[in-house]
Specification:
The protein has 193 residues and is an alpha+beta fold. It has 4 helices and 6 strands, in the order H-H-H-E-E-E-E-E-E-H. The chain has a domain of 60 residues: Head domain of nucleotide exchange factor GrpE (Nucleotide Exchange Factor Grpe, Chain A, domain 2, Roll). The longest helix has 55 residues.
Length: 193
């Protein structure tokens, strides 16, 4: 008997085609998703860079005009000082000019205090504090204790409780007691007499 052979499907050809189609269909969604994530990452990186640039511009703008309010408050003081200089040329009343300058100084100090700047002047006899004072000189003084302030050369200033300029002062330094003479020194003096 003769065997009838059934036609066998060509698996090799069909398998490669099926595999190629399957891998293309499987890789497409993965590649597509990968591409989407890359695009998102690039967009976020660009947004972050734009935010950094925007913050930098805002910061520069802030520092550029941060003192605008202070300067606006100081302008009347400048005007008053200019008027005082003009008055010096026209007026001979020194007391009126002095009062005008004193008032202008008072307005200036009050304006600066609005923004947190405060003057401080230590009193004579106060103890020396290196955080608030800078000693320019040391002298002996009978009525002031050792380390006390004798004289104030210049006021100090704080800005919101931070010292920005210490007061310049003269500090009391007691003279050291003279050493008692040693017995050898006394013998030398006796022999000279």
């Amino acid at each position: 008997m003769t065997e009838i052979k059934e036609p066998q499907p060509d698996f090799q050809k069909g398998d490669t085609e099926a595999t190629a189609e399957g891998s293309v269909s499987e890789e497409n969604p993965l590649e597509k998703e990968l591409r989407e994530w890359k695009e998102r990452a690039l967009r976020y990186a660009a947004e972050l860079e734009n935010l950094k640039k925007s913050f930098r511009r805002e910061k520069e703008e802030y520092f550029k005009f941060a003192l605008e309010t202070v300067f606006k408050e100081l302008l009347p003081t400048i005007d008053n000082l200019e008027m005082a200089l003009n008055a010096f040329e026209k007026s001979s009343d020194i007391n009126a000019l002095k009062q005008g300058v004193e008032l202008t100084l008072k307005v200036l100090v009050n304006t600066l205090e609005k923004f947190g700047l405060k003057q401080f002047e230590p009193a004579v006899g106060d103890p020396f504090h290196p955080h608030f004072h800078e000693a320019l000189q040391a002298e002996h003084h009978e009525s002031i204790p050792d380390g006390g302030i004798i004289r104030v050369y210049q006021k100090g200033y704080t800005l919101h409780d931070r010292v920005i300029r210490p007061a310049l002062v003269c500090v009391c330094q007691r003279a050291s007691k003279p050493k008692e003479e040693s017995p050898t020194n006394n013998n030398d003096q006796d022999s000279q007499e």
